[in-house]
Amino acid sequence: MSQQFLLSFKKDISLIEQEETERLVLQSSNRSLTFKQVQSGLKTALKTLADGGATLAELSQLVQQDDGNFLALRFYAYRQKFSNFGWLCHSVLAEGQPIAIAVPLTSDYQFPYTEVAVEFKYMLSGFAYCHQVEGQLLLESPLSQTQVLLMDWKGAALFSQLAKPHSCSELVNKVPGISLQTVKQFVNLLLSTQMLSEVCEDGTITEQANTTLAQWEFHDLLFHTRSRLGRHANPFGGTLPFLRQN
Asked: What would the mean pLDDT of 137-164 be, rounded to a whole number?
């Protein structure tokens, strides 16, 4: 399942090609990674990540066909490093178009690739919330170090259905024209980003058994996490956004 997510770099990751030194530099706001004497396959894979993305299997194939098996295996280590840096977005596709994109918010986030079972029931976390930001539906949670962009009506429809317990096989019948594979990936994405919980046999969700979380109201935990560093990428401290308007 994890092989099928579309992987791409975050928008703030720059790919700089230094022709005079034959180096490629990947750079974010707080760290950089330099590749010396880059082979053609690896260069193509890095450029693909910066320009739309591909699945891990497709990226590995790009490296393997030009650079051989050894560098293809080495690319998996690079992918893990990119994930450790919080540079990789994970997208779910339906008919070749993204319906949901998980974007890491912190520089130390690692996507856990949590697998799902088709017949298990899942339900939105009580701390997950959706709001509009610059014309885009954004799914967030104070429990998560990511935000999920809902890119079209299919992603929004699946999200709304998960307000109640549903299995993947049930969700397929709720949203017209969507495949079971896409539904599994969508549930996988939300479960991996802590937007969902598995539903127990008694109808409760797993996070309700967490005695620490049980002490938090939604608004209190949201304020707690957004007023300190850790699980968000917002400005922190006295930002004074309206100072110049007075």
From this structure: 93
